[in-house]
Amino acid sequence: MQKMSTPQPLPWPQAFAAFGRCLVDVARALRQRRLHQPSASLGRVIAFADGTRATVYRETVRSNGPVTEPVSLIVAFRLRWVGGNRLAHRLFRLESACNTVLFAGFDGFVSKLWMTADAHHVYRGIYEWDGYDSAVDYVRALWWPLMVVSRRDSIRFHVVGASTRELLLDGAHGGPDGSWWRPV
Question: What is the third-level CATH fold of 2-169?
Answer without folding.
Answer: Alpha-Beta Plaits (3.30.70)
